């Protein structure tokens, strides 16, 4: 079996999704920490379209986009299945992954912006949470995947953890336990998994990192 | 695999059209429900309560939403007939990457080019050209043998998504009175789109050019009016 490498960064929720998927499946891999201000030649070669992490390199073959990577892992390493067996249930899982992919960038915009832009990002982030709370396929279940985590848990897990840090850095509350009780319960379940808890970035370190980014972005935009 | 197949869609939506193409490639009989997007049916609201959007496929009463999700469902459910996604997982990953790119990165800027003028349009054109450049390089890198296609004459997922989005460039050019897809700058994209729009299925299934021109003109004038207001 060809070797597997993951180009990622410690502070990226997209990176962490792939890490979780690989550890759940017990896939041995080499992790390469990228400096986003000084991207490696290999990264640029493997993801010329976006020049972004995460990139999985299986043998010589690069795979880009975190959820495309997770689907790829699922197809090659079927142990610890992350997608249901039957097409209809698979389509439901993929629907929620798409929703999370489309709406989660609003969460990052909350710490990256101020004023009217930040207000819009807040509204859109809260909308995502409301939809998940009301319609999410985890009703009466421990995880989106039932008793075990699946692709939806992986997609949202990173976003939810980062949300806490975004709240602290931006001073805006999003993930209110009273407004989103089911999602909060789910978050507790996710973090109680040893594999997840052991593979989360240090909260303090992440706070510092995002606060620093926010300062740079906010001060550069106020100079324009 | 029998059962009732109903597609709630809209004639001009590239997302809806993609699902139609997928059904036709597989030879699946279906009922098409044309939705008026200004007056959506109660059924659509019930089948897609989260987004209230087309397309929605209803198979034996069960709804599936999101065009790419629907097309993967179709491929997994109807195993007879041509494959929509390649068999090899790496090739599948490439197709998923590029279809995501077409829908998320290229379509939006194209729509912005239609809906703006002046400086805003210049910015939108610049963004769209950057995305076309990425696509051009991507085809070169990912599909060095030529225009991506998996079944010879049959459309695969990438073709199904690419055809409605990129095929509309001619409509855009007519409405704007200027070139959008420059053959010299983007030879591979151009030849791929040309090959796609020449396919018998595309000729049969794509919305009539004049009808789309009329709609694009309407969208443009409405957008410019509300921007000026």
Helix content of chain A: 55-70%
Name the overall outline of chain B. globular
Q: Show the largest interface.
A: A-B, 25 and 26 residues
> What is the overall number of helices of chain B?
10
How do the strands of the widest beta sheet of chain A line up side by side? 2-1-3-4
- How many beta-strand runs of chain A? 4
Structural class of chain B: alpha+beta
Instruction: Tell me, briefly, the overall form of chain A.
Output: globular
Q: How far apart, in Å, are the first and last alpha carbons of chain B?
A: 53 Å
Name the average pLDDT of chain A. Answer: 93
Low-confidence stretches of chain A: none
Spatial strand arrangement across the major sheet of chain B:
2-1-3-4
Estimate the strand proportion of chain A. Answer: 5-15%
Structural class of chain A: alpha+beta
Q: Overall pLDDT of chain B, averaged?
A: 93
Largest sheet entry of chain A: 4 strands, mixed
SSE succession of chain B: EHEHEEHHHHHHHH
Helix content estimate of chain B: 55-70%
Distance between the termini of chain A: 52 Å
Structure summary, number of beta strands of chain B = 4
Instruction: Compute the CA-based radius of gyration of chain A.
Output: 18 Å
